[in-house]
Amino acid sequence: MMNKLYGAYGLFLTALAGYMGYTGYVINRGDEVKNVPRSVRDNPGSYRSIYANYARYMGGK
Prior knowledge:
Elements: H1 2-23
């Protein structure tokens, strides 16, 4: 009995999240940043090619 209730509740939450995503409704929009550069040339510090071929974890002491 409880498995059916949990399943229905999960299905309801999934449907609600899908509906909210489809309609574009957002609970918290967050901070909006203005004057964002549109390309790497406008903001050369945003892309660092020296990090392209390295793994994120380099090891420790």
